[in-house]
Amino acid sequence: GDSSDGGDSEEIGSLLGAEGAEEPAAESSGRDQSDMSFEERLQVQSVMKTRVHKPVTNGKKTAKPTKATVKQQQSKKGPLEMSAKKPVPFLRQVISVTKKVHRDPRFDDLSGEYKPEIFMKTYSFLDSIKKQEKEMVQKQLKKCRNVEQKEKLQQLLNRMTQQEQAQKKQQKSRERELSLKRQQRELAKQGKKPFFLKKSEKRKLELAEKYAELKRSGKLESFLNKKRKRNAIKDKHRLPSQKNL
Fold this sequence. Notes:
By secondary structure, this protein is an all-alpha fold. It is built from nine helices and no strands. Among the domains are: about 110-195; about 200-235, no CATH class.
């Protein structure tokens, strides 16, 4: 029994080597294992395993990091490099890009409600600028001698006068609508039922105002003559021609 215990202790000492002399298990290598506790035996076995495997791992050099890992370490903030050998997944994570939404102030509630009265008051200074531009065009038209340039200036002047007339017409129609609204409010205050004009009735009022304006300016006769000529031409076109008879 003593010879076997001595042989075991010698084997433990040879496996531990010179470095294992400092460990507590090495101190107990000369002792008899029968005198050791169960905990001490487990400690000796663990030291044996570590000492057996340690020279093997220490003898080899640690593996160098691959190029792929180096690239990933160098560019941590960059995009992740996918391997060409592995197939790309069907549903991969894509960074969502915020879509730019274009806003049209004509149809957006943020721009407020369009009110022609406030708009005309706010941009009333443009009327004086347009008037100055019209006067400049008239002066250039008088001084110009080039035929082509004169035609262009005349077309520009005609367009300016047409815009001015259209603006005046719109302003008058707004004033008419405002006067009708005032009448409706007064009727509602008196307890009467308010009335709403039809399109045909509004058209009659417009024609009556136009007739009064032409009579005031002295252009009524010329306007009526032109109107008669147009009506005569229309009637002539409506009549059956001699070929069809």
